[in-house]
From TrEMBL, chains A, B:
GO terms for molecular function: 2-dehydro-3-deoxygalactonokinase activity. It comes from Sulfitobacter noctilucicola. It is an enzyme of class 2 (transferase). This is 2-dehydro-3-deoxygalactonokinase. The keyword Repressor does not apply. InterPro entries: DGOK, DGOK_C, DGOK_N. GO terms for biological process: D-galactonate catabolic process.
Length: 301, 301
C-alpha cells in the first residue's frame, strides 16, 4: 500500500458541476482528485461529506488549511462568500469566508462584482490571479471561455472591468435542444465554415438572429453536413461575442485562459481578426491562483 | 345523444406539438377538436390512428375530403409534401400530396422554400393564404410570431421572400433551461422594462450577447424581480429580431398573424418604433387558408 499523503494544504476548485482537489506539500502537487460532487447537486449539508469523501485517502486534520474557489461560495453553496467590487485585485485572501465545520479548516475565496453594467464572477478571479502571479506586470485583456465566457480588462494588477457572455450555454442549448440539433449533431467540424461565420457575424452582428435558422434550412434543402452546421453555429455565436466585446480586445494584449476545446475556437477567431492571443491552461491557472491566495493568508490559518 | 355530424370536408392544422381539426358543412364550422397528437410524437404509422381517434365522433367516410397543413408534411411526417419555391402564391392546392391510406381521402398542402438565404416554412403559408383571401389586394409584410417567427414579404398575391427567426425557441430555452431561469421565472411582466429593452437592442443590436447575462447579475446584486427579468429577456430578443428584420418592416404595411400571447409583444415593440401593425388571429387565418385550398381543389377530390 502506498504511503498516505499528509498535505501541507489543500486547494479546491469547486464549481457547479465538478469538484477538483489538489494535495500540496512544500509547494508541490502530490495528488489530484476529481469528483462530480459539484455545487449544483449538493444541499447545504452535503458539502462537508462530499469534501470528506474526496480527502479520505489523504491524512487531513481539522487544522489542515483548505482553500476553495468557485460556485461553492454562491448563495446556493456551502457558505456565501461576498463579491468584491471592481476595480480591485483579483484575489484578497483575507476576504475569504469560513463555513461552519468541525472537520475542516476551510476558506472560500470571494468572487467579483461590477455595478454598471451588472456582472459577477466566481472562480475566474482565482484563474486571473494565477495568471498575474505567473506573468507579473502584465496589462491587457483576459478571455476565459466557458459556459459563461468572461472578458476581463487588467491594468496594474487590478481587474478594471469585465463582461460575461452566455455563448457557451447558448451553443449547448441550441445544439442539443433546439430545432438545430438535427443539423449540428456529432463532433464534426469544418474550419473554413467557422472562419466564414465568424467574419459574417463580426461584419453584420445585427443579423445573428436571422442567420441561425438558416443552418436548419440549409440542411433541409441541400443536405449540409452536421460538421458544417456545427462549425457555423459556433462561428456565428463566437463572432457575435467578438463583435460585442470588440472594445475589450481591439489593439491590446490578449490572453486566453481555458481548456483546449474551449480556447481553440476563440484563439482561431481572434487570429483571423489580426488579434493573436496567448493561450494558457485553465487548471494550471486555478492552481497558481489558489497558491497565491494561500501565500497571502497562510499565517492566519 | 346529439346528432352525429357528417362533414362535407375536414380541415387539419397538424403541427409538431398539436393537431387541430375542423368539421365543416356548407362553409360553416360545425365542430372543432384539438389533440396533442402532434407530428413530433408520432412514428410514420401513427398518423392514421391519430386521425381516426380525432374524427371518431363524426361520420367520416373514405371519400370525405380532408385537407392538412403543417409539419405533418415534413420528412418526419406522414408523407413528405415538397416545398414550393418563392416567389409564388402562398398556396397551390393541386401541389398537395396524398399519403397512402385506406381510410382517409387526405391531401397535405406543400410548404414554401427560399434558396438565398436558405429558408423554409410549413403551415404559415396556409395562414398567409387565409389572410390574403380575407384581405384581397393587400401588399406589405406579414409577421407570424411563434417558436420560429417568420417575416414574409407579400406583393400582388405572392410571397416574394421570407426570413425565419428562432426568437420564440430561444426565449423558451433561455427562460427555462439556462442560468437565467432563476431570474425570469413565473408569468410576471413589466411593460416599461420591455419597451426599454427593445429600444436598447434596436439601438445597439451587436450588444445582445453582452446583455443577456446582466439579467442574472441584476438579480444577484439587486434582487431584480422575475417580472422585470422576463420582460427584459423578451425585449432584448424581440428587439434584436426587429433590428435584423428592419429592411422587411420599415415603411410598409404590417400585419401580424398570431395568438394573443405571441402577437402582443411584437405589436407593442413595432408600435414603439412608429410602425403600427394590424393583428389578426392565427387560428382564423389557418381555417380561411384551408378553406381557400379546399375551394381550389374540391372538384379533384
Amino acid at each position: 500500500m502506498a504511503e498516505r499523503i499528509t498535505p501541507d494544504w489543500i486547494g479546491l476548485d469547486w464549481g457547479t458541476s465538478n469538484l477538483r482537489g489538489w494535495a500540496l506539500q512544500g509547494g508541490q502537487v502530490r495528488d489530484t482528485v476529481q469528483s462530480c460532487a459539484g455545487m449544483g447537486g449538493l444541499s447545504r449539508d452535503g458539502f462537508e461529506p462530499a469534501l470528506a469523501d474526496m480527502v479520505a485517502h489523504w491524512d487531513v486534520t481539522p487544522q489542515t488549511p483548505i482553500l476553495a474557489c468557485g460556485m461553492v461560495g454562491s448563495r446556493q453553496g456551502w457558505a456565501e462568500a461576498p463579491y468584491r467590487a471592481v476595480p480591485c485585485t483579483p484575489l484578497e485572501g483575507t476576504g475569504a469566508v469560513a463555513p461552519t465545520s468541525d472537520r475542516f479548516n476551510l476558506r472560500i475565496l470571494p468572487g467579483l462584482r461590477q455595478t454598471t453594467p451588472s456582472d459577477v464572477m466566481r472562480g475566474e478571479e482565482t484563474q486571473i490571479a494565477g495568471f498575474l502571479a505567473l506573468n507579473t506586470d502584465w496589462d491587457g485583456v483576459i478571455c476565459l471561455p466557458g459556459t459563461h465566457t468572461k472578458w476581463v480588462q487588467i491594468s496594474a494588477g487590478e481587474v478594471i472591468s469585465f463582461q460575461t457572455y452566455m455563448t457557451g450555454e447558448m451553443f449547448a442549448l441550441l445544439s442539443s435542444q433546439s430545432v438545430l440539433r438535427h443539423s449540428v449533431s456529432g463532433d464534426g467540424w469544418d474550419d473554413a465554415t467557422f472562419d466564414f461565420a465568424v467574419e459574417e457575424a463580426l461584419g453584420k452582428p445585427e443579423k445573428l438572429a436571422a442567420r441561425l435558422f438558416a443552418i436548419r434550412a440549409d440542411d433541409l434543402l441541400d443536405g449540409t453536413s452536421p460538421a458544417v452546421g456545427r462549425a457555423r453555429l459556433s462561428g456565428l455565436l463566437i463572432g457575435a461575442e467578438l463583435a460585442a466585446s470588440k472594445p475589450y480586445w481591439l489593439g491590446t494584449n490578449i490572453a486566453i485562459i481555458g481548456a483546449d476545446a474551449a480556447a481553440k475556437p476563440y484563439a482561431r477567431a481572434l487570429q483571423t481578426q489580426g488579434a493573436p492571443a496567448t493561450v494558457t491552461d485553465a487548471e494550471r491557472m486555478t492552481l497558481a491562483g489558489l497558491t497565491a491566495a494561500y501565500r497571502q493568508i497562510q499565517d492566519t490559518l
